[in-house]
């Protein structure tokens, strides 16, 4: 039946505002690291060069998170627009935000209250607060008194030695209700996850000194902060040498009238650092496309159905730097944690080539290099599971580098009171290496925690772990432990003498 052309079938036009209940699911796909990254994106867009991330502790529990930057801040109108849900302003070409929901989605993914303090240059202070329950009801926003904003924001700005910037506070946070050592372990894990994620996705900005990110803990009960930790650059392509002469190679894909450059790398088979073991996992899990926009890494591996992930392609990593060239052919989630390729882009990438190398031949060469390396590889001996007291990042590195002994309990490292003349004691029954507490400040500078002194504890673990692998200790083991204690205690006394001499 032929469809008739309708020319005047509209009776009227009405505006249907979205149901405030949609806010319940806002940011549902965010992890804490991806949520914080979305907040840091706002700082980068504001031309900030320093960002401070603060875990706030109160009543011995983690209660909130604060992000402070030294960017250009916002005026009153900009502050209002920032709090408006779905506000899509005109973004600059080098902006990281594009959806108008990043701030709200990131905040409400882990907290029920979002407070923003901001000041543009020598202008006035402005403050806004969104409570999730209010937004769900009627999208209402609280405007804060300028004097209160100045009082609360100034101490944060002073830490960054800036007159302009923005403070984003996530309060009523839905963090685990841990206390004591469990809280310490959770904080260590979260800080490690943030350093890994932020160091990876902002590695270019960090390396070029365009951005410095620090992470710190502030204890409101004590009124003091811990020692800030810098987020290091983690470049997924920073290897001393290529596995194959002539690589990386630049292949060209063509879709419609657009050329897309692919920088095709073959990772050295012996690579084992954090640049390869992204997120502490086997590097094979991060083969594929690494997609950048304005020097911010958006996608960390994955083939987007261009080819199939396979262990044989563990060494294949492809950088796409020009996001503008692929933007018409992709769809990105608001959380920036997934990019979907359209079929025509997938086909174009499969057909990418230079005069002598095709995309298929690049993948085949990558697989060949892996096979050749395995013929020369010697299996490492298993080690005892590292337990409490050893920093989370160190434990991840150990897991990635060596097989773990089965049917053997982990070994822990702790500080405990001990007589002078003994650096450590090994307790086989409790599977613990006890370190002499009188020397703790020498290695921690007074900043103590369950996973403090990571370098010392890593060395102690490597020195002692195999003594916890067998069924019993013989005279040789006990004599060796006495030897260690004599040498290490002498070394410590010598170190103390050096320090006293320098201070005189």
UniProtKB/TrEMBL annotation:
Gene3D superfamilies to which the protein is assigned, alphabetical? Histidine kinase-like ATPase, C-terminal domain (3.30.565.10)
What InterPro entries does the database record attribute to this sequence? HATPase_C_sf
Q: What's the protein here called?
A: DNA mismatch repair enzyme (Predicted ATPase)
């Amino acid at each position: 039946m032929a469809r008739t052309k309708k020319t005047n079938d509209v009776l009227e036009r009405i505006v249907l505002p979205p149901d405030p209940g949609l806010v319940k699911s806002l940011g549902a796909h965010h992890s804490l690291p991806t949520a914080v990254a979305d907040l840091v994106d706002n700082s980068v867009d504001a031309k900030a060069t320093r960002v401070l991330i603060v875990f706030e502790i109160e009543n011995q529990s983690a209660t909130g998170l604060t992000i402070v930057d030294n960017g250009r801040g916002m005026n009153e109108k900009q502050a209002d627009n920032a709090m408006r849900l779905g506000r899509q302003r005109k973004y600059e070409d080098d902006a990281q935000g594009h959806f108008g929901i990043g701030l709200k989605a990131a905040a409400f993914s882990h907290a029920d209250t979002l407070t923003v303090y901001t000041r543009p240059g020598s202008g006035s202070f402005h403050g806004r607060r969104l409570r999730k329950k209010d937004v769900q009801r009627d999208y209402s926003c609280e405007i804060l008194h300028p004097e209160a904003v100045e009082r609360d924001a100034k101490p944060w700005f002073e830490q960054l030695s800036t007159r302009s910037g923005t403070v984003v506070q996530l309060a009523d946070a839905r963090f685990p209700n841990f206390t004591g050592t469990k809280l310490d372990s959770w904080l260590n894990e979260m800080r490690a996850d943030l350093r890994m994620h932020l160091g990876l996705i902002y590695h270019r900005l960090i390396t070029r000194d365009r951005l410095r990110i620090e992470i710190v803990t502030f204890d409101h009960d004590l009124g003091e902060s811990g020692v800030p930790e810098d987020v290091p650059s983690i470049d997924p392509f920073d290897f001393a040498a290529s596995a194959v002469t002539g690589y990386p190679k630049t292949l060209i894909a063509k879709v419609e009238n657009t050329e897309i450059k692919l920088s095709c790398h073959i990772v050295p088979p012996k690579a084992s650092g954090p640049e390869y073991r992204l997120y502490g996992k086997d590097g094979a899990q991060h083969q594929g496309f690494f997609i950048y926009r304005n020097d911010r890494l958006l996608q960390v591996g994955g083939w987007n159905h261009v080819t199939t992930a396979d262990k044989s392609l563990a060494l294949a990593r492809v950088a796409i730097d020009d996001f503008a060239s692929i933007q018409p052919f992709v769809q990105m989630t608001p959380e920036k944690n997934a990019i979907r390729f359209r079929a025509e882009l997938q086909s174009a990438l499969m057909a990418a080539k230079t005069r002598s190398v095709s995309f298929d031949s690049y993948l085949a060469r990558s697989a060949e290099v892996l096979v050749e390396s395995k013929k020369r590889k010697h299996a490492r001996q298993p080690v005892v599971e590292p337990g409490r007291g050893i920093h989370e990042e160190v434990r991840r590195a150990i897991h990635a580098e060596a097989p773990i002994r089965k049917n053997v309990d982990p070994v822990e490292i702790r500080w405990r009171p001990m007589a002078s003349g003994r650096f450590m004691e090994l307790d086989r029954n409790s599977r613990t290496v006890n370190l002499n507490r009188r020397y703790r400040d020498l290695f921690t500078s007074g900043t103590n925690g369950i996973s403090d002194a990571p370098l010392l504890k890593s060395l102690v673990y490597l020195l002692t772990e195999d003594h916890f692998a067998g069924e019993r200790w013989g005279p040789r083991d006990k004599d060796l432990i006495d030897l260690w204690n004599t040498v290490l205690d002498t070394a410590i006394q010598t170190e103390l003498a050096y320090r006293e001499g320098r201070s005189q």
